[in-house]
Design brief:
There is one protein chain. By secondary structure, the protein is an alpha+beta fold. The protein has a domain at 31-157 and 210-296: Immunoglobulin-like, CATH 2.60.40.1190. It has six helices and 16 strands. The chain has helices spanning 2-25, 147-154, 160-163, 190-193, 197-200, 321-355; strands spanning 36-40, 61-64, 66-67, 83-90, 94-102, 118-124, 140-146, 214-219, 226-227, 234-239, 243-251, 267-274, 286-287, 291-295, 307-311, 314-318. Strands 1, 2, 3, 4, 5, 6, 7, 8, 9, 10, 11, 12, 13 and 14 form a 14-stranded mixed sheet that branches. Strands 15-16 form a two-stranded antiparallel ribbon. The longest helix is centred in the C-terminal third of the chain and has 35 residues, at 321-355. The protein is globular and about 60 Å long. The termini are far apart. Bound molecules: calcium ion (CA).
Length: 356
């Protein structure tokens, strides 16, 4: 009897350990070499160019993906994308991720039962937050690139009439023009927008005016994911018929939800990919283990703070503060040098000459 109890206890412990490890592993095989280094680049980054030549000089890290098994709903039997090639570069002011994965189905529309392809980068804001959406005391900031948003940015807002060709509305209150009505141009009057509650309320998911395909979100545990007031990520994705190549970028320091890069990191980072054709949406996705990301030491002085602003007229990346200061210092130094060499020294020589 005592032996039976011992077996039961051991079996329970083994099961608990197994569940714990499976949660920690989140379906990814242990043993893959963890850790990423952002290569330092002396110059502008291809912040929205996944096909820029510079990416060819950067070594890719193969990141293994597995099913998300920590919080329901999870996908069965498994996500279709099991591997992601990641490159990271920085120039002291900006950091850019290039994510590439094989996916022959370009899913860039969202309907009630049709899902988009997408990918996300999660960065921990405090140590220990990198485990699946952070914790109540340690937040994460997330960049979520979405193929349907990319389609909106590339072409035009994908309207209901395109998603549902047989749909017809013969009248909208306060809309300009005549049917078929299109967004946002024919509905841009404030009174007309009231009939689009999400858009009118400023819901970023509802706006037909997509300016970037990347949404910036924050979370501090499962079920807390929400869009962030300060949108700091930008990017672009392209599909070549066989794979997605997506670049996701942000300033290293914005003053808002900045990862603790410190003197080069590391910070915890994790990745996720969704294949719409495989029914992947929300928690049904392929995810990586969290891993440390370090910034390679810059070889030149770099900026302290840069800003990215998403406005009605587009995405603006402001010049870095320290670079502006360096330019001013350089101009002042040049003027001083000109005064000393061109005016003061000759004057003193002349004085000395007249004294002799
Ligand atoms: Ca797909």
């Amino acid at each position: 009897m005592r032996m039976d109890k011992l077996v039961l206890v051991l079996a329970t412990l083994a099961l608990a350990a197994g569940l714990y490890v499976s949660n920690i592993q989140i379906g990814v095989t242990l043993g893959q070499e963890l850790g990423l280094t952002a290569k330092y680049v002396d110059g502008p980054l291809p912040i929205t160019s996944p096909d820029a030549p510079i990416w060819g000089d950067i070594e890719a890290k193969e990141v293994e993906l597995g099913p998300q098994l920590t919080a329901a709903p999870w996908i069965h039997p498994e996500p279709s994308v099991r591997s992601l090639r990641v490159k990271v570069i920085h120039n002291g002011t900006w950091v850019s991720f290039l994510l590439e994965w094989n996916d022959a189905t370009k899913d860039d529309k969202m309907l009630t039962d049709t899902f988009r392809d997408s990918a996300a980068v999660m960065l921990a804001l405090q140590p220990g937050a990198g485990q699946c959406m952070g914790t109540p005391t340690a937040e994460v900031v997330i960049a979520h690139w979405k193929a349907d948003w990319q389609r909106d940015v590339n072409e035009a807002f994908t309207d209901i009439s395109e998603l549902y060709p047989n749909f017809w509305s013969d009248w909208y209150p306060f809309a300009v023009g005549s049917p078929p009505y299109t967004l946002p141009d024919l509905m841009n009057l404030s009174a007309a927008k009231e009939y689009f509650a999400g858009w009118y309320a400023g819901n970023p998911l509802s706006t037909p005016l997509k300016l970037t395909p990347v949404e910036t979100l924050v979370a501090h545990g499962w079920g807390t994911l929400t869009t962030y007031a300060y949108q700091s990520f930008i990017g672009r994705g392209i599909h070549d018929g066989a794979k997605w190549s997506v670049v996701i970028s942000r300033p290293i320091s914005t003053g808002q939800a900045d990862p603790p890069w410190g003197d080069g990191g590391p910070v915890e980072v994790a990745f996720a990919v969704w294949d719409g054709s495989n029914g992947e949406i929300g928690a049904k996705k392929g995810v990586s283990l969290p891993m440390p990301l370090s910034l390679e030491k810059p070889t030149k002085p770099t900026a302290v703070t840069a800003t990215v602003t998403v406005t009605e007229t587009g995405v603006e990346a402001a010049p870095p503060v320290q670079n502006q200061a360096l330019i001013i210092i350089a101009i002042v130094a040049a003027v001083m040098a000109f005064l000393i060499i061109g005016i003061i020294l000759p004057g003193r020589k002349k004085k000395r000459g007249s004294a002799e």
